[in-house]
């Protein structure tokens, strides 16, 4: 029966008794068995806890190892990228330097052309002044002769006219001579290609230095080009030649002179010509048949036997590069012996 405004409370069901609680407290065997079971369960729980921790640690160690491996790969790639960046930056600097050298060469060549044109114009002006001065000299001689004739004839007006003429000629000669002197000094200041103190020679020297530096930079940027191979070959030849010269010019080592008792006296033959003298005589005897070797700038860099000259005028760049590489290999092998 339910009354108005009253809610019946649910009746709780009785809980099932635990196995341990069901053990009679007065049964010693059962109590000890329950205690042993509880200890076994505790050991299992500890084992499970250690297993969970070890598994987590192993998984964490594996993840750390994988992360470190990946980090090492990324660090290596970063170093490679940094190395490429440094190489590219260095190449960019060489390219910028090459552009600066080209601009410098263009400026110095333009300056050399301007100096050459100025020298030609100045020389023409000096020559024109010399012609005018020569004409004025003739006029002065005529005026002098006319003055002498007027003086002998007692022609006062004629004397005055000739003296005025001579004075005017002298003034013009003085002015033109000053111009000629200034132009001559300027012409000497410009100088020629063989005058080391002249502006022209210094400008050409700066141009040549810039060209050599540009060639070196281009060889660094492209070591496989024909000019780079030839320059490297010339460096090897120069080093080998210097080593041979140094070896030949060294004084011979003193020979031991052991004292031998009761040795018969042997008359020594006359001293033979040294190896250096023989080489000098052989080189001098063959010098007339040698031909000069020049670089691309027209500088004499050595002499060679005509029989050993390989014509390359009709070769293309690929054939020249292949030939230079083959010759370079042979020279480097002989230089390393």
Can I get a quick summary?
The protein is mainly α and 337 residues long. It has helices at residues 19-22, 28-153, 156-190, 199-221, 226-249, 275-286, 317-335, and strands spanning 291-294, 300-304.
Q: Layout of SSEs?
A:
Blueprint: H1 19-22, H2 28-153, H3 156-190, H4 199-221, H5 226-249, H6 275-286, E1 291-294, E2 300-304, H7 317-335
Antiparallel strand pairs: 1-2
Helix pairs in contact: 2-3, 2-4, 5-7
How would you sum up this structure, described in words?
This protein is an all-alpha fold and 337 residues long. It has helices at 19-22, 28-153, 156-190, 199-221, 226-249, 275-286, 317-335, and strands at 291-294, 300-304. The chain has seven helices and two strands. Helix 2 (28-153) packs antiparallel against helix 3. It has a domain at 225-248 and 275-337. Strands 1-2 form a two-stranded antiparallel ribbon.
The percent range for strand residues is: under 5%
Strand order of the largest sheet: 1-2
The run of helices and strands is HHHHHHEEH
Number of E-type strands: 2
Rg, nearest Å: 53 Å
Low-confidence stretches: 1-7, 258-266, 268-273
User: Shape, please?
Assistant: elongated
Helices, by number, come to 7
- Based on helices, strands and strand pairing, what is the structural class? mainly alpha
Main sheet attributes: strand count, strand direction, barrel closure: 2 strands, antiparallel
* Mean pLDDT over all positions: 79
Ends apart, CA distance between termini: 125 Å
Query: What percent of the residues sit in helical stretches (DSSP H or I)?
Result: over 70%
């Amino acid at each position: 029966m339910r009354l108005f405004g009253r809610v019946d409370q649910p009746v709780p069901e009785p809980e099932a008794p635990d196995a341990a609680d069901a053990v009679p407290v007065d049964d010693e065997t059962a109590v000890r068995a329950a205690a042993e079971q509880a200890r076994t369960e505790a050991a299992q729980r500890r084992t499970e806890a250690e297993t969970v921790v070890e598994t987590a640690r192993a998984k964490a160690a594996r993840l750390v190892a994988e992360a470190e491996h990946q980090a090492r790969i990324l660090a290596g790639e970063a170093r490679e990228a940094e190395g490429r960046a440094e190489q590219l930056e260095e190449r960019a600097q060489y390219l910028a330097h090459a552009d600066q050298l080209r601009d410098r060469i263009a400026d110095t060549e333009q300056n050399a052309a301007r100096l050459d044109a100025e020298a030609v114009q100045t020389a023409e002006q000096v020559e024109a002044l010399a012609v005018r001065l020569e004409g004025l000299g003739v006029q002065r001689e005529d005026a002098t002769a006319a003055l002498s004739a007027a003086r002998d004839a007692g022609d006062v007006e004629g004397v005055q006219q000739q003296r005025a003429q001579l004075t005017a000629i002298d003034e013009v000669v003085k002015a033109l001579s000053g111009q000629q002197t200034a132009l001559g000094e300027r012409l000497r200041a410009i100088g020629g290609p063989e005058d080391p103190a002249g502006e022209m020679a210094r400008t050409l020297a700066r141009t040549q230095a810039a060209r050599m530096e540009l060639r070196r930079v281009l060889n660094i940027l492209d070591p496989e080009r024909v000019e780079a191979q030839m320059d490297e070959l010339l460096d090897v030849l120069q080093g080998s030649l210097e080593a041979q010269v140094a070896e030949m010019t060294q004084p011979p080592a003193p020979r031991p002179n052991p004292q031998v008792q009761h040795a018969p006296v042997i008359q020594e033959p006359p001293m033979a010509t040294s190896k250096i003298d023989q080489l000098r005589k052989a080189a001098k005897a063959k010098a007339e048949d040698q031909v000069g070797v020049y670089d691309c700038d027209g500088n004499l860099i050595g002499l060679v036997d005509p029989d050993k000259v390989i014509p390359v005028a009709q070769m293309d760049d690929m054939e020249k590069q292949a030939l230079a590489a083959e010759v370079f290999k042979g020279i480097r092998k002989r230089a390393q012996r």
